[in-house]
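User: Please predict the structure of the protein below. I'd like the answer in C-alpha cell form so I can feed it into my own downstream comparison script.

Assistant: Understood. Taking the following sequence of 167 residues as input:
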Amino acid sequence: KMVQNGRVFQPIPLELVDLYLQIGSEYGIRGDLAFCQAVKETEYFQFTGLVQSWQNNYCGLWATGSACTGQESLNGADPGMVKFQPGVHGAVFSSPAAGVEAHIQHLYAYATKESLPSGKVLCDPRFGLVARGSAPTWQGLNARWAVPGITYGQSIIQDYWLKALNR
C-alpha cells in the first residue's frame, strides 16, 4: 500500500511493544490491545493521516481535523512531556515513552474514575476532558474515541489483535 502511494514502508518500531506492555501494566490497561489501537490509529505506524511520526502521538490525541495554534491548554499535563505547535495536527510528545504514557492515560481516563496511579505524571492533555469511567471495555470506546465509530472497539480486537494472534 505504501509503495502504491509513492512512499517507503517504515519498519514498525518494535521497542514500542515493550513500552505499551510495561506502561499498560502500570495502569491496569491491556498494553497489547493498546498497541493494536496504535497500529489502527497510525496505519501500522506509517502515519498516513494528519499526525506525523516525529510527534510520538500514537493515538491521535488532539488531532481533531484542525491544525493547532500552539496556544491550546495543556489542562494540567506536564509541559516537559507534551506541547502544541502552530500548524501541527495533534499533540506533540517529548519521547516515544511520553506518547505511549499519554495514550495509556487516555484509555485509563475512559476506563475508570480513579486518580492516576501513585507517582505518575500527567502526560495526556485531554485526560480531564474525558467522561471518566464511561468506557471500561474496548467496545465501550465505540462512538467515544472515534465518531461515529460504532464498531471501533471491536475493530481493535478483531481486525488487529486477533489477526496478530493468528500469525
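That's the full C-alpha cell string. The chain is about 35% helix and 0% strand.
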